[in-house]
What we know:
The protein contains three helices and three strands; from the N terminus they run ααβββα. With about 160 residues, it is mainly alpha-helical.
Amino acid sequence: MELELLLIWAIVTTIFLIIIVGILIKLQKKHKDDIEKMKQSIQKKVDKSLDAQRSSTKGNINEQLAPIMPEFTEKYAASDARFLGSPIDFVIFKNMSQYDSKTKALDLPIDVILIDIKTGKTKRLTEKEKAIKIACEEGRVSFDQIDIEESSKNLG
């Protein structure tokens, strides 16, 4: 009888251990799968971030190189362009490169054109750029001259 109880106890314990080991193996596999999913998720986010950085860098480079691109030179002279970068990319002083020491302001008018360069997939204006575009369209563009004295006391 004792042997039978001992045998039953051994069988029950073995079954219990087999169940525990099975559960642990499943948990370990699930843990490995979860880690792999997290690694893939992190890698996707890193790749997306790197792509965005590359795209931004390419955009910045293209903005700087725009005056030598055919899309630009078909309309404007590179020597008339002045790079700002923000909030718009260029101010074009159309015809300015044709001025020499004898040219009079009334003889050759200069058009002032604000340009924003767009590259890549997204070619939408930001809200600031839209506001500048609207200001130009509505004629809210002006010229101001500020005269500063050479011996200004504000300089210390």
